[in-house]
Amino acid sequence: MDFMKKNGKISILVVDDHFVVRAGLSGSINAETDLAVRYEASTGRQALELYRAHKPDIVLMDLRLPDMTGTEATRAIRQEFPSAKIIMLSTYDGVEDIYRALQAGAASYLLKAAQREELLNAIRAVHAGERYVTPTIAAKLAERVSYVDLSAREMDVLRGISDGKSNKEIAAALSITEVTVKLHVRSILSKLQVNDRTQAVTAALQRGILHLA
């Protein structure tokens, strides 16, 4: 039996590609008598390997990792271990980021700017089998109900727009006609409820549909 579990502590795996962030989280969490950061990972693959080996009670998962997204890592862990309890930590508050993370199996989504007490409350709540969603996150999810998802091809065209490509260049890159690109652009503008290509990219970034490289 795990030593920390025998002593009543909630064992935690912290996943973040920045050492300073991992150290800060560990120091803050380990100050609590009932919590212990036992494992640290800097990539999604390391997180999966550590989870397989140790099955910690809670995973604190960064959204942006060097080898895969935190959402992809969460999905991979949850597919193999459906009872895994994962909290997503991110600097991104776009509604699509939040929605995808929760759809992948995260039990909570917290911003890295959250107060220490909020993080501790989330850890304890998720460990108790609850979902922890702040009012701000809940409001963003409620807002998403009115959104219409972009298709995979529309996402390809949107990425081309965000790269500054013309319709002709997007058509060549995707091996489709320029007329087809124009139809996709029209649909993208309608779904994002904007009037032009610049507004489309801005809205996509704000919602977390796209991210700056």
- Give the termini separation: 43 Å
Spell out the helices and strands N to C. Answer: HEHEHEHEHEHHHHHH
Oligomerization = single chain
- For the secondary structure, the number of strands is 5
* CATH architecture verdict of the largest domain: 3-Layer(aba) Sandwich
CATH homologous superfamily grouping of the largest domain: Response regulator
Rounded Rg = 20 Å
CATH top-level class of the largest domain: Alpha Beta
Structurally, the number of domains stands at 2
Uncertain spans: 1-6
Number of helices: 11
Overall pLDDT metric: 92
**What is the beta-strand fraction?**
5-15%
CATH topology assignment of the largest domain: Rossmann fold
Major sheet summary line: 5 strands, parallel
Structure characterization notes:
By secondary structure, this protein is α/β, with parallel strands linked by helices. It is built from eleven helices and five strands; from the N terminus they run αβαβαβαβαβαααααα. The protein has helices at residues 3-6, 19-30, 44-54, 70-80, 95-104, 116-127, 135-144, 152-162, 167-174, 178-192, 197-207, and strands at 10-15, 35-41, 58-62, 86-90, 108-111. It has a five-stranded parallel sheet with strand order 2-1-3-4-5, sandwiched between helices. α9 packs across α10 and α10 packs across α11. It is elongated. Mean pLDDT is 92; it is low at 1-6.
